Each structure stands twice: as structure tokens, then as C-alpha cells.
Recover the amino acids of this structure.
């Protein structure tokens, strides 16, 4: 058997399945608790003063990093994978980007601004956004 092939799961009784499912559920819960611990630790990381003047191109002209906050206390930045030589973004990023607008009111209600950034050329981004 090659590394890409997998064995089909065994067929077992409902009792055996339930035992296996409960064991897996315990592992899933442990993973969830661990993920929450790591997220808590990430939120507690010390902050670094941003001393560089970051400037981004936008359809409204140059925009500073501070401007991206739009007066809110937090900024959520999504890196849209879109190489400068490409005419469209990666498939996964395109799918995610297609759902940005639904989350914006929820973020704004929590004092969070949202921005998608990319290395793509502005004209490619604008054309892609119009098409999508």
C-alpha cells in the first residue's frame, strides 16, 4: 500500500462503534481545550509598538495603517493570496472573500475593522472584486 492509499474503516457492531466514538470524542475535546489555551496565550502576548509608517494602496489612494482602523480599537487583517503576476486570487481565498460582507456588521458591532491585503496589483484586485 502506498502512502496516499488508506484502508477502508472496519464494519463493527453499534456498541463497538459507540466505544470508539466516545474515545475519539474525548480526544476532540482535549484538542478543543488545548486550542483555547493556545488562543488565550496568544491574546496575552506582549505588544510591539509599530514605529514604521506602513502605507497601502487603495482605490481611494494611499492609506496608512492607522487609517485602516477606521476609528475602531481593533483591526482584523486577512491576507488575500493573490500574486502580483496573477489575474485572480487563490481558490480558497476567493471562496472566503466571497463571504466577507456578511461578517462586517458583526465585526463593527465589536469595535473591529476589517481589511483584506494582498501583494496583487490594485487594477487586478479591482477587476477581481468587480467580477466576484
Amino acid at each position: 500500500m502506498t502512502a496516499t492509499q488508506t484502508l477502508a474503516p472496519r464494519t463493527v457492531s453499534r456498541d463497538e462503534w459507540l466505544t470508539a466514538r466516545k474515545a475519539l470524542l474525548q480526544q476532540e475535546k482535549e484538542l478543543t481545550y488545548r486550542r483555547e489555551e493556545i488562543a488565550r496565550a496568544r491574546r496575552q502576548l506582549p505588544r510591539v509598538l509599530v514605529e514604521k509608517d506602513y502605507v497601502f494602496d487603495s482605490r481611494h489612494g494611499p492609506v496608512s495603517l492607522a487609517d485602516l482602523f477606521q476609528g475602531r480599537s481593533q483591526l482584523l487583517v486577512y491576507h488575500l493570496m493573490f500574486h502580483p503576476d496573477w489575474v485572480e486570487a487563490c481558490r480558497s481565498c476567493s471562496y472566503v472573500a466571497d463571504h466577507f460582507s456578511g461578517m462586517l456588521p458583526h465585526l463593527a458591532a465589536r469595535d473591529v475593522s476589517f481589511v483584506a491585503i494582498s501583494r496583487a496589483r490594485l487594477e487586478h484586485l479591482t477587476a477581481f472584486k468587480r467580477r466576484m
Q: What stands out?
A: The chain has a mean pLDDT of 92. Residues 58 and 122 are 7 Å apart (CA to CA). The first strand starts at residue 55 and ends at 56. Strands lie at 55-56, 63-64, 74-79, 112-117.
